[in-house]
Automatic annotation (TrEMBL), chains A, B:
<comment type="function">
    <text>Catalyzes the attachment of proline to tRNA(Pro) in a two-step reaction: proline is first activated by ATP to form Pro-AMP and then transferred to the acceptor end of tRNA(Pro).</text>
</comment>
<dbReference type="InterPro" id="IPR006195">
    <property type="entry name" value="aa-tRNA-synth_II"/>
</dbReference>
<keyword id="KW-0436">Ligase</keyword>
<keyword id="KW-0547">Nucleotide-binding</keyword>
<dbReference type="InterPro" id="IPR036621">
    <property type="entry name" value="Anticodon-bd_dom_sf"/>
</dbReference>
<keyword id="KW-0648">Protein biosynthesis</keyword>
<dbReference type="InterPro" id="IPR016061">
    <property type="entry name" value="Pro-tRNA_ligase_II_C"/>
</dbReference>
<dbReference type="InterPro" id="IPR045864">
    <property type="entry name" value="aa-tRNA-synth_II/BPL/LPL"/>
</dbReference>
<dbReference type="InterPro" id="IPR017449">
    <property type="entry name" value="Pro-tRNA_synth_II"/>
</dbReference>
<dbReference type="GO" id="GO:0017101">
    <property type="term" value="C:aminoacyl-tRNA synthetase multienzyme complex"/>
</dbReference>
<dbReference type="InterPro" id="IPR033721">
    <property type="entry name" value="ProRS_core_arch_euk"/>
</dbReference>
<dbReference type="GO" id="GO:0004827">
    <property type="term" value="F:proline-tRNA ligase activity"/>
</dbReference>
<keyword id="KW-0067">ATP-binding</keyword>
<protein>
    <recommendedName>
        <fullName>Proline--tRNA ligase</fullName>
        <ecNumber>6.1.1.15</ecNumber>
    </recommendedName>
</protein>
<dbReference type="Pfam" id="PF03129">
    <property type="entry name" value="HGTP_anticodon"/>
</dbReference>
<dbReference type="Pfam" id="PF00587">
    <property type="entry name" value="tRNA-synt_2b"/>
</dbReference>
<dbReference type="GO" id="GO:0005524">
    <property type="term" value="F:ATP binding"/>
</dbReference>
Length: 491, 491
């Protein structure tokens, strides 16, 4: 398997597209903008799901499932929400096909037109709040902490595997609370959980903050987000959590009786991460040789490749390897012993490098004689000879080391790509040049934000959550500003 | 919580509908034919998923994800397949909404009409085989063993929670093989896995067999199935596995190079179970007091209800109960200690009976003095006093006993409701009377099958897999028959 991978410096975007396909993560389907997630890619997504699901359940959330379809009238009930999604809705209008009378094939049966069109959910606030009206009567029914794993559809015109697809997989949490403060706390909690997941499991450093009004979710009063930086200096929004105020409760008339017996509208949040995280994972760590996966999310953590001539040598190697495989598995390490005779070791090395397997062991005649393994780590491409009796301990420590090392590498890159600027010229220079995050003063108006976006393609990624207050002047208009905000070009 | 549940004898169908809603499994949504699966119901489904997924992976299958939408032209490629699904397809025709010019609200934007309509997948053979054409070139790529967990849509006119809904959740396996025999073996293997899951985990006895030609999956050469019997004497098809021959490989031109270098079409299977299993689970075991859940699938296996007056008594009880909860959890038993002060013990007893929690512990002042718990099992409603030091062992053995007992009860019911008949009059009498499965001779023609269905509403559920060959005469036409087949009215 020759990798033939375009290098990042040559064409980052092409490198990404090729890598996703060649590493067997996903590919385009025959359906415009919809991807096929291949088994290797899906195995990574399953690991992400399992960990997130655990974190959601540990914080009291339960899973449920709501309909794929949303009646058009539901979507219309919250004004800014429908405004935000109307332009990218897949619309179901009919419920039957039939044979054309002229024999030209199967056509839509015009007699089977729906009375009301159904929208394939772009997000589920409306159908869920229509349900919550039935579920919530009293303060005793609150908080209601629900999550859903689902597919959603947003008809994007320009799509890219994982990063922007017409259909994608995600989880969407939808919670209901008795007080504003409790809902705000929930929205913040979920942002922190997403950040913890990104940092600890994906090894992706993220910056937490809130969105400006114009970048908020359609229907939210506040949108919290985590922002990551890719190796090409562009930012990627990796997760969002919304404080929805009482907007949806009012649109769907969801009230509860307080302890004091008063009727009040419920307070809401929603929050989600999607298969877009797969794109962030790939773009943060991978290199010109292929994927680099964090051990915690790698479907195969260790691969063992035998180097042999003839069955006799293979048998001798297997005699050594089989108990090792067993021991590693007993320690919860996923290991693959690849003794296929249809491919040469060099081909296998390339393949597992491309697929980002964190640790590769090779064992040949000389190792057998010396009682050693050649241990190669994917992140640094370093190899060393390790005594057989030490190899399990070595692998265990590598799992930890690699996880930490790739996080540190990504963090170093990000820290080297956060620039403070004080003038618009300097801003443009950085944005056009080295890229990355730029901290600058802004006057707080959507007009200035729009102008910057139009002139530089950079957007405000977030207002930092724990930034120091620092008074200054907007780099564009010179008007007063109370703190710097974070700009970047973004995916 | 008064249960107010209609009894089975009064109206079985009404009992089922009420139970599903009252036990918090699912409810109808505002979208025609689409259900909301509530957290308690979804927790059962998650347990089913986890177990099935494990069994699939243990037999070498991997998960992947394919698009929700299927271009109309794909669906049309396999003639009998489109014939089978055309009448119940949700069709996406547009990709945008807009504000009506007359201000009447949000309408479909007629300028955003799709060039080719998209069908919301009713099943994924066509989109998957379009993909497999790219994945399969050589015998080295086979077998390809893939499963997908997904939502599908079939526009049913008459729907019932879990049993028949417009949208439902399922898994669909799609495999590709080099030889006919390997594909047949795979289809049979999956039927056996489904049967094992039904018997061992759901405690639902099933009969294995093959479908007659007219009951086969649209596009299959053979459909294997498992059939269960509900308490009203009606059968329920609980899972199917299809040998698809080379039909889809031919329709989508999927060929592989054999070891000898010849180009041949691939052999296929597909197999699935759905949220319909939830209906089977409810209807097999539950009684007039509510759900009865098998311990292996119960989200809460043990509930502990304290009976107390005042906080001091509760504290004394909690001091006993807390370590017990911890010990049970350490043994992998899911336990809930319900010390809510907003509801009385009687209310709680009713609630957990309704929700089918296998074991209920109660502890009051007298128990505290005597060092005992009152242990009640949901399946038999028997109660006994158990010494505190024996209670863990008691619970552990009850988990096993209840699982076995409800299976045995269901099996006894089924065995008492399989009737051999030799005349059509006798057949009608049984079908109209006690119901259940009926074993009878049939001449093997679709005409006779249709006539029986029309006259009695009974269908051939399956041709038994391991039935003894027994020559006889068709009960309707008197023509020769080589073995009895299994009839029933069915869901």
């Amino acid at each position: 398997m020759g990798k033939n991978l375009t290098s990042r410096s040559e064409d980052y975007s092409k490198w990404y597209n090729e890598l996703v396909v060649k590493a067997d993560l996903a590919e385009n389907s025959g359906v415009r903008g919809c991807m096929v997630i291949k088994p290797y890619g899906f195995a990574i997504w399953e690991k992400m799901q399992a960990q997130l699901d655990k974190m959601f359940k540990e914080t009291g959330h339960e899973n449920a499932y709501f309909p794929l379809f949303i009646p058009k009238s539901y979507l219309s009930k919250e004004a800014s929400h429908v405004e935000g999604f109307a332009k990218e809705c897949a619309v179901v209008t009919h419920y039957r096909l039939k044979n054309a009378e002229d024999g030209s094939g199967i056509i839509v049966d015009e007699d089977a037109k729906l009375e009301e069109e159904l929208i394939v959910r772009p997000t589920s606030e409306t159908i869920i709040w229509d349900t919550y009206r039935r579920w919530i009567q009293s303060y005793r029914d609150l908080p209601l902490l629900i999550n859903q794993w689902a597919n959603v559809v947003r008809w994007e015109m320009r799509t890219r595997l994982f990063l922007r697809t017409a259909e994608f997989l995600w989880q969407e949490g939808h919670t209901a609370h008795a007080t504003r403060q409790e809902a705000v706390d929930e929205a913040e909690q979920m942002m922190h959980i997403y950040a913890e997941f990104a940092e600890e499991h994906m090894a992706v450093p993220v910056i937490k903050g809130t969105k400006t009004e114009s970048e908020r979710f359609a229907g939210a009063e506040e949108t919290y987000c985590i922002e990551a930086l890719m190796q090409d200096g562009k930012a990627l929004q990796a997760g969002t959590s919304h404080f929805l105020g009482q907007n949806f409760a009012k649109a769907f008339d969801v009230k509860f009786a307080t302890r004091e017996g008063k009727q009040e509208h419920v307070w809401a949040t929603s929050w989600g991460v999607s298969t877009r995280l797969m794109g962030a994972l790939v773009m943060t760590h991978s290199d010109d040789n292929g994927l680099v996966l964090p051990p915690k999310l790698a479907p195969i953590q260790v691969v063992i490749v035998p180097i042999y001539k003839g069955l006799e040598q293979l048998d001798a190697i297997s005699e050594k390897v089989n108990p090792l495989v067993k021991e590693l598995r007993s320690k919860g390490i996923s290991v693959k012993y690849d003794k296929r005779d249809t491919h040469k070791p060099g081909f296998k090395f390339n393949e597992y490098e491309l697929k980002g397997v964190p640790v590769r062991l090779a064992i040949g005649q000389r190792d057998l004689e010396n009682g050693t393994y050649e241990v190669a780590r994917r992140d640094t491409l370093q190899k060393e000879s390790v005594k057989a009796e030490d190899v399990v301990a070595k692998i265990e420590s590598l799992m930890q080391e690699i996880q930490e090392n790739i996080h540190k590498k990504a963090l170093d890159y990000r820290e080297a790509h956060i620039t403070k600027v004080d003038s618009y010229d300097e801003f443009k220079e950085v944005i056009e040049g080295k890229g990355g995050f730029v901290l600058a003063h802004w006057d707080g108006t959507p007009e200035t934000e729009d102008r910057i976006k139009e002139e530089t393609k950079a957007t405000i990624r977030c207002i930092l959550l724990d930034a120091e207050k620092e008074e200054g002047k907007c780099m564009v208009t010179g008007k007063p500003s109370i703190q710097r905000v974070l700009f970047a070009k973004a995916y």
